[in-house]
Amino acid sequence: MDLFHNPFSPGAGRPPPELVGRGEILQQALVALGRVKRGRAEKSILIVGLRGTGKTVLLREIAGLAQQEQYQAIMIEAREKKSLPEILLLELRQMLFSLDRGERVSAKVKRAFSVFKSFLSTIKRVNVKIQDIDIGMDIEAEKGTADSGDLEADLTQLFIALGEAAQDKQTAIAIIIDELQYLHQEELSALIMAIHIIVQKALPIVLIGAGLPQLIGHVGHAKSYAERLFSYPKVGPLKTEDAKAALQKPVQKEGVMFTEEALDEIVRVTEGYPYFLQEWGYQAWNLAKDSSIDIHIARQATSVSIDVLDQNFFLVRFDKLTPREKEYLRALAEWDTQSQRSGEVADKLGIDVQHAASIRNSLIKKGIIYSPAYGNTAFTVPLFGGFMKRVMPDFVISKKREYKQGGRKHADD
Questions:
Q1: Per-residue pLDDT tens for 156-165?
Q2: 32-36, 87-91, 215-219, 333-337: which range is least confident on average?
Q3: CA-only gyration radius of the chain, Å
Q4: pLDDT by residue (tens digit) across 297-324?
Q5: 8 A C-beta contact, residue 191 and residue 84
């Protein structure tokens, strides 16, 4: 078929041609945005789910809803090697300029600029990675505010100034952060504290975030009251009918149809995960010769899609791992269940639990695995276990023997 009209476009954060099965979360976000703007108390939202479940797509949809509600909205992504101030400051600067537009000169906005400048000067002293940021006007830093060097206290004071400025301009602020699990504990604690105080003062700022499942534990460890401050909607694979609709509706608009058998097959092998549905749909369209995509095309799409994922989606994560981490993941892949007891993985490797724990902790920090329950381990990337079996097909027996006979039981790579 015509490749130019292929409705599917698999990729990180790309909006699908048909967003289905997420209406409840979007409605929850819309209610939160509407209430906060109207001065009503409402929990901020932290969306949690595995890779490929469409968290980033949801955040972008929510950012659009915020703009429709006349919010000042920023969307940023937390990164392993960048601090929270680094990813926040440029966006907050732009937001302040947006608040300063209009005929009426706002003293609250001018003060927010002063507090921002104070916060910026302090951050520069403790973090040399912060680039020079020109606020573009002759404003003095407000001494004694947001300049203590304590991120928790300073970020809170900055958010208060921003909230008061937004309130004065009769608008609201949505801070939208993806990959929240990458924030350091002290940064996450500071962010939670700032939102906590904002809620107490009934200022119009809402935090919408997303992250891997371990985010819930990180937030709880950062602040004990966080469970009352946020709601944690979970996103997972789509229900069968929604998954089929995500495939069928886009192609119907182009005069094409999946057969029921083809839909069943693709939903089965993708397990209903949105990213994989897009990949399979894309490949199936390209392979089809006419307007009917049948079971044979679906099976060909599986073969091609797995090759593409192995060479890109899975491989980029695999290549970042140490040899010992790869061995741990290969052992974990032996079980077809979603999670496995950590002790069983250690036994499979032939090493003691304490040594396995250090490898496991490293993989959790890298976002490759998580702990769905105490003592359990699972992949954060759906279908990754199958990839590990393909890329390391002869690992288990040979490596287990090497651990036990080669004297590597306590060795580190």
A1: 999 999 999 9
A2: 333-337
A3: 24
A4: 999 999 999 999 999 999 999 999 999 9
A5: yes
pLDDT tens digits, 257-313: 999 999 999 999 999 999 999 999 999 999 999 999 999 999 999 999 999 999 999
As a whole number of angstroms, the distance between CA 66 and CA 208 comes to: 10
Backbone angles phi, psi at 45, to 5 degrees: -125, 130
Tokens at 317, concatenated:
């994560």
Tokens of 161: 């100034």
Cα separation, 328 vs 361, whole angstroms: 11
Structure tokens at 182: 């990458």
List the one residue out of 358, 267, 293, 380 whose CA is nearest residue 7.
Answer: 293
> Tokens representing 245?
């609709």
